[in-house]
Amino acid sequence: MVETFDDSRQLQTACGVFGCIASGEWPAKINVAQNIYLGLVGLQHRGQESAGIVTVNNGKMRQKKDMGLVNQVFTDDILDKLRGDLGIGHTRYSTTGVSEMINCQPFVVDSRHGKFALAHNGELVNAKSLRQKVLADGVGLSSESDSELMTQLLCRAPDNEGVEPDWPTRIRNFMKMSLTAYSALLLYKDRIYAFRDPYGNRPLCIGKLVPPDLFDGEHNDNDLPVDGWILSSESAPFYCMGAKYFREVMPGEIVCVSRDGVKSCGQVPRLNGELPAVCIFEYVYFARPDSILENQMVYSVRRRCGMQLSIEAPQEADIVSSVPESGNAAALGFAHQSGLPFVEILAKNRYVGRTFINPDNRLRKLGVAKKFGALADNFLGKRVILVDDSIVRGNTLGPIVRLLRKAGAKEVHVRIASPPLRHPCYMGINIPTKEELVANSVKPSELAAFFGADTVVHLSVAGLTKSVEVGINEKPIGHCTACLTGIYPVAVDF
Predict the structure, then answer these.
(1) How far is it, in rounded angstroms, from Cα 187 to Cα 21?
(2) Please, what is the Cα angle at 164 between 158 and 166, to 5 degrees?
């Protein structure tokens, strides 16, 4: 049998959004374009197909977007031309719309009130009916992107609107038409509006840029002067640009950010008092481990998942290890809870990407060797518990198990720090079809034989939910587990 290894990421989140606005007097003292660039680099894991930045300088809107990674699209010369007082950026992975230039974001739209720009993360669950509504009104759409659809709906003026657009009301009206799933930044003249769907499915947070000489000092964050404000899908990029985490944009909340500060414009409630539906797979897989979601660090949640997994699926063994780097936090939690030592057994080649050569038969038979090397001295003749965050199609785990056995592992017990993926996502995550998910094609009792392991056990849905929610103090608490349970927070229309 020929062994193959799929070295691409198996799941993709739709996008990352990032915004920055200078405080106080303009022209800005901070380099807004450069901060947005750094923010998008920090969100590159959320999308690798295209990147774009739109800024406003002295009332004039400038933009640059193209296919490719952030550092391929932007150069120092381009960023210098994008200097401004405020701006928004976007890095994309397509879930709706093909991967072409026409779907790159942010979208810049001409309206009767002038230009505005929109950057959006997520997927509208009722996009089909919304497109029909827009087209029925005689409005053409030039792309398949949900973001363009959003811009057309946001162009609709509410009754009794004055000379200037009433963006909070427009956004509120849009949110009532589509309850999920999105977080978005809207740039208009001298301010940025940030909004998140009423179920909070896609993340969005606010950071405060502080003077560099005060960033690492012993200060109360609330007392620090403000150089500017940033908005981001995740908090992970904040530290590299001298920003302090401020707070999340709450589910259904509309926030206006200007040179004068952050102002909440209210929240759109969920239907019938339902619970939020924050994507639980942000904790499992998508978010960077150093990001803060719901006021807790993602790394800490993943570690708790590993601890809970050890309680649910104990195993006699000699060592615990991980599939680097996705399983590291959970493996450390499993080792701590079980009392077994954590030992590295796989070395990852970080420079293997999607452009790896098409291998000949000899290289193809080596399979996993192109991405992982075995640290054989660390596990020769030992019983190994191998922890990873998830299994999707199941293309990678089998070759890893075979590699460990060939290198001398006595036993290989696989533990997965999330429940089996069984259902597609309609809210911004590009999960394969049900037929492609290994959990739907292989029975739980047959997984070990399928992967060549001694045992394979997943964390339970209840165990995952407990691990996530134990660290949350804000009420109400609610998470979307549709990809695991098939129970969607709202009806989907595709």
Answers:
(1) 10
(2) 40
- For strand 319-322 and strand 383-388, is the pairing parallel, antiparallel, or unpaired? parallel
Spatial CA neighbour of 434 closest among 450, 452, 421, 447: 421
Does the pLDDT value for residue 126 go beyond 50? yes
**Taking a C-beta distance cutoff of 8 angstroms, is the pair 106, 47 a contact?**
no
**Which single residue is written with the structure tokens 């038969």?**
361
For residues 241 and 35, the answer to whether their CB atoms sit within 8 Å is: yes
3-state secondary structure of 77: helix
Q: Is residue 145's pLDDT more than 80?
A: no
pLDDT in tens, 333-362: 999 999 999 999 999 887 765 433 444 555
User: How many Å apart are CA 247 and CA 69, to the nearest integer?
Assistant: 28
Unique residue bearing structure tokens 């063994």:
317
CA atoms of 46 and 30, how far apart (whole Å): 26
Sorting pLDDT into bands at 50, 70 and 90, what band is 141? confident
Strand pairing partners for 108? 117
Return the number of other C-beta atoms located less than 10 Å from residue 137's C-beta: 10
Check if 15 is active-site. yes
User: Alpha-carbon distance 191 to 170, whole Å?
Assistant: 15
Model pLDDT, residue 217: 65
Of 15, 205, 256, 480, which residue is the catalytic one? Answer: 15
Say which amino acid occupies 380.
L
Give, to the nearest 10 degrees, the angle between helix 167-177 and helix 146-154. 130
- pTM across the whole model: 0.91
Using CA atoms, how far apart are residues 57 and 27, in angstroms rounded to an integer?
Answer: 8
